[in-house]
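Journal club side-thread
Mid-discussion, someone asked how the predicted structure for our own chain would compare to the paper's figures. Pasting it here so we can look after the session.
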Amino acid sequence: MNTSSAVRACDGESDSHGVHADFTTKGSGVVQQIRDGNGANNSCAYTGSYGDYKIYSHRAVEEINGAPDNFGDWKYPS
């Protein structure tokens, strides 16, 4: 059973490319986003808790300026 009700995005490289996490909560279907956009590998960004709204799906995205972003596969926690 998925018990997570928060999301974080952490950039693990100092390459000037920001990252973000796309996610949906169970029952909403609306894609939301949390962003760590500085590309500096020095911090993480966190959502607040969504309480009873558990995370339904998520994916990591590397933001590449002047080119298509690098999207990870959607993951569905069980």
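Post-session note: The mean pLDDT is 86.
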